[in-house]
Structure prediction request, 87 residues.
Amino acid sequence: MDITVRYSSVDGFRKTRTFKTLKGAQKFATKYVGETPEFGSYYAVSFDGVGKITVSGTTLEELFPTPDAKDEDWENDPTNPDNADAF
Prediction:
């Protein structure tokens, strides 16, 4: 399933991109509103309130994972050298 990310800013600039992977969608979204935006009911807003992201095909929580979730993923990742004996 495709992931569509829509960006809009207070000055009227708009950009929409469609992605096959979550990683690509995450890169695009964080470029415009940063890694830790504020969440509304269906959107994410940059810390300064200038840019807004909406998404379809995934959730905002998956698009902007918390730092703890990223660390947990790395801790369980078999490519992490600290886990060499665990897998």
Remarks:
- The chain is about 30% helix and 25% strand.
- The chain has a mean pLDDT of 86.
- The chain has one domain: 3-80.
- The longest strand covers residues 3-9.
